[in-house]
Amino acid sequence: MSKQTKFDELTDAELEHIKGETIARDAVEPRAASARYDRKNDRLIVELKTGVVLSIPSHLLQGVAGAGAALIAKVEIDSRGYSLHWEELDAALSVPGLLAGVFGSPQWMNELQANAATSTISAQAMGRKGGSARTPKKQLSSRANGKLGGRPRIVSVT
């Protein structure tokens, strides 16, 4: 059995080496330096040690979506910066996962995709409805365009 190393048993050179490795990792690994909840925009703001800042709508985050602002604001970062945790919500998210666009379990992500597809369809339907609206302003615009010759004809080149 090997003996576990304790920090008080390390030499100054070993401690300096560990500090150097930590600084090097901070420059490239996705680890959180800070996390806060932006109540005005209902977003989680995570600043990474690399300087990258993530801004994620709270409704995308599994375990956090639908929680009150006071609970979302109680976000904590683990000691190494690799995960975010909400103790009262019993929710935790991976910082590298968030950076990769993973906001929860595979099932959660599938539900988000399904909801996004439904929203896109309704947005398209709303666009069609808006495009077919007959308003006095739209009628005047059509008449003005008609006086200019309307839409150009498509000329086929043979």
Give the key terms.
41% helix, 158 residues, three-stranded antiparallel beta sheet, single chain, NE0471 N-terminal domain-like, elongated, alpha+beta
Rounded to the nearest angstrom, the distance between the terminal CA atoms is: 85 Å
CATH structural architecture of the domain at 10-107:
2-Layer Sandwich
**Percent of residues in helical segments?**
40-55%
Strand order of the largest sheet: 1-2-3
Model regions low in confidence, pLDDT < 50 over at least 5 residues: none
Please give the oligomerization state of what you see.
single chain
Shape: elongated
Number of strands: 6
Strand content: 15-25%
- What is the string of helix and strand elements? HEEEHEEEHHH
The CATH class name of the domain at 10-107 reads Alpha Beta
Provide mean pLDDT, rounded: 83
Which structural class is indicated by helix and strand composition?
A: alpha+beta
CATH structural fold name of the domain at 10-107? NE0471 N-terminal domain-like
CATH superfamily label of the domain at 10-107 = Uncharacterised protein PF10387, DUF2442
Number of helices: 5
Rg from Cα: 27 Å
| Major sheet characteristics | 3 strands, antiparallel
